[in-house]
Amino acid sequence: MFVPAEKVSMTLGERLSAAVGVRGDRSVEAARNTGAAEGTRDARRSGPPGVRIRDLSVVYRTAAGELPAVSGIDLDLPPGTITGVVGESGSGKSTLALSLLNAVQPPGRIRSGSVEIDGLGDVTRLRGENLRKARGRHIGYVFQAAQNSLNPLKTVGKQLLDLGRSHEIRDLRGLVRDAKDLLGRMGMDGARVLDSHQHELSGGMRQRVGIMFALVLNAHLVVLDEPTTALDMITQATILRIVREVHEERGLTTFIITHDLGVVAEIADRLAIMYGGRVVEQGPTTEVLGAPRHPYTQGLIRAIPRLVGDLGEARALPGRPPTLGTVPSRGCVFRERCDLRMDVCETEEPPAVPYGEWIVACHAVAARDAETREEKE
Amino acid sequence: MTVIARRLAGHLARGFAMILVVTTISFVIIRSIPGDPMRARYEKLVEQGMSPDQAERATAALYGFMPKGTLWEQYADYMRGLLHLDLGQSLSVPGAEVTTLLASAATWTILPVLVGTLLSFAVGIIMGVYAAIKRSSKLGDVLAVSGSLLHGLPQYVLALLLSAVFTTLLPIFPTGGTADVTLEPGLNAAYIGSLIQYATMPVLTYALAGYGGWILAMKSSVVTVLGDDFIMAAELRGLKRGLIFRYVARNAILPLFTILALSLGLLFGGAIFIERIFTYPGLGLLLLNSITDRDYTLMGGAFLLITVAIVIANIVADMLYTAIDPRVRSGQEAS
Ligand SMILES: Nc1ncnc2c1ncn2[C@@H]1O[C@H](COP(=O)(O)OP(=O)(O)OP(=O)(O)O)[C@@H](O)[C@H]1O
Ligand code: SF4
Ligand SMILES: [Mg+2]
């Protein structure tokens, strides 16, 4: 029933086993920690929220009309899990992430679908003050360009106070203390950082300050858009470790975007692979990475150079990812680059078919699955 | 504080050099313009039958002094006088000190320029913010187009237009002078009202002339800042709208402060046309008259004063920037 992927799973083996070993049984631990880590400033919420994205389509207005950057995505973020999203540049990851806050920027807009978040309802319907209060307080967001996420004219501390006042935090001292704690855990001198302007901090420090801002209000849904891009390997590892620790301690639901499979392998429970505005494959991280079914996922994994072994074995995916204008409007979005392409791929978009917890949208995978099932019977 | 002091010292040194250069150049150029009124008078007296000695004494008596020696010696004299803020005697207004003339004229330029510019700055900034926020609507277009039109119009055309409309077609405002001459100068309502009435035309011209530039500059500055990542980050953190507005405004207005100070300096030069058209006795008119009368001491003094104004404006602009922008403050500290 599996697409032959033994080779693939082996190439990733070394990286994966380490990551899996570290993670252990997180869901149990997360559940245990939820109660204890509940913030003193907000005792109302209990437990991490679940998120259900249904048939979400987001379009951008261009010279050629409104073109979809996200097309009919169905994705669940189970409470207390870390979901990783991977895809090449332009696949719609940031657009999807912004939709979780109903913050798609003009000329873009959510054309259809819903994003249900426990405790908030369908955020695509939130407006005005309700929307503003949800952002920051309920949903923490680490910006893709987190390095530039600070007002250059104000110190970090003053901006922290602005944040506290915006969300009616009465205990501002407590807020500052929490911020210092978080910064300290990320290996920085909290007091000094709060006293600094953006230009006095290095790229890695700003990124961590961005993460602090996303966590300091004790939001229980945290969205991180490429939080480790432009960081060196060591800083990247530190930040991922902190994200994971805080996730477990506070009992968060975390959504992390990256184009680095190594990052998701290290921290995500679940993985969604995006291509051309679609989620082409999603499921538990270890299983998907261990035996990927979608030809695109397989290609992505093959493209990773191994640390040990022959460099020649890493094969870059041929061709380029589509842009808004070149995404085919019918058939499979991946067919230009797919070795398994069939006639039906030209005309019909492959439906997302669930195989247990694992969902794949590919005609070839569906056909093979049907074959193996027939053989069994 | 030391950063500011160090910057200030640098500015003063540069400003001093600039003043020296301008004074020297204007000294040389002005002295080489043919048609010196003193020489003209002297020659006339000689023609009328005076001996050269007599003629020279008579001329010197009228003007209070008579330049002697080579150009070099005159230059040295002039610079020595400058050190004591003595710019010499006017040649067209016999017996008057250049500094006194400049001082009284400067008041009539500085106040209207200041009021007009600050007015247009304030209004232009607010309208610029609106034009930026409403940039995809009709109102935004109208504001931007009004800005471009006013900005493209030369100051003197604007002054002529205003003069034609408000002093000729609808004679609401007087033209010429600073106040009704029949009124007793002093702190009485009638006189002050008259001062305001007479100043309205020049002030309005300065204001309208600047407004177009401010609205365009502020609009583009706000649009740039609105597109900055940190503004979106602030929105995604759920900051209150008022706070975000302040983030935008403060960041957008910053580069405009420099232009403000500079334009104040430059307006002293621009005052020439406007004061001419409204016959308003400020520095510009004084400079213009001094050129017509070949009054080179007065000319030199006026040029000097304009240079000093620009130098001061530069310094103020930079100090403002340093005080507001933390990047400049610490950037200098590091170097
Ligand atoms: N403001 C915009 N106007 C027009 N098109 C846009 C805009 N923002 C994004 N797009 C397009 O939408 C598509 C998805 O963009 P998105 O930023 O979501 O991709 P991404 O997966 O996050 O890429 P990256 O890895 O480079 O961050 C891209 O083709 C992009 O060109
Ligand atoms: S649907 Fe067809 S073209 Fe698309 S990935 Fe599957 S086999 Fe390839
Ligand atoms: Mg992105």
How would you summarize the topology of this molecule?
The complex is a heterodimer of chains A (377) and B (335).
Chain A: H1 6-23, H2 26-37, E1 51-62, E2 65-77, E3 82-86, H3 93-99, E4 108-117, E5 121-122, H4 128-137, E6 139-142, H5 156-166, H6 172-185, H7 190-194, H8 203-215, E7 221-225, H9 233-250, E8 253-258, H10 261-267, E9 270-275, E10 278-284, H11 285-290, H12 295-302, H13 343-347, E11 353-355, E12 358-360, H14 363-376
Parallel strand pairs in A: 3-8, 3-9, 6-7, 7-8
Antiparallel strand pairs in A: 1-2, 1-4, 4-5, 9-10, 10-12, 11-12
Chain B: H1 2-32, H2 37-47, H3 52-63, H4 71-83, H5 98-133, H6 138-152, H7 155-169, H8 189-226, H9 229-236, H10 241-277, H11 283-292, H12 296-324, H13 326-334
The complex binds adenosine-5'-triphosphate, iron/sulfur cluster and magnesium ion (MG).
Descriptors for this entry?
heterodimer, A: 377 residues, alpha/beta, Rossmann fold, eight-stranded mixed beta sheet, four-stranded antiparallel beta sheet, 14 helices, 20% strand, disordered N terminus, B: 335 residues, mainly alpha, MetI-like fold, binds adenosine-5'-triphosphate, binds iron/sulfur cluster, binds magnesium ion
Q: Largest beta sheet of chain A, briefly?
A: 8 strands, mixed
CATH topology of chain A: Rossmann fold
State which percent range the strand residues of chain A make up: 15-25%
User: So how many helices of chain B?
Assistant: 13
Shape field of chain B: globular
Number of helices of chain A: 14
Strand arrangement across the biggest beta sheet of chain A: 6-7-8-3-9-10-12-11
Helix and strand content put the structural class of chain B at mainly alpha
Give a short summary of the structure.
With 377 residues, chain A is an alpha/beta fold. Chain A has helices spanning 6-23, 26-37, 93-99, 128-137, 156-166, 172-185, 190-194, 203-215, 233-250, 261-267, 285-290, 295-302, 343-347, 363-376; strands spanning 51-62, 65-77, 82-86, 108-117, 121-122, 139-142, 221-225, 253-258, 270-275, 278-284, 353-355, 358-360. In chain A, the strands form two sheets. An eight-stranded mixed beta sheet of chain A has the order 6-7-8-3-9-10-12-11, with helices on both faces.
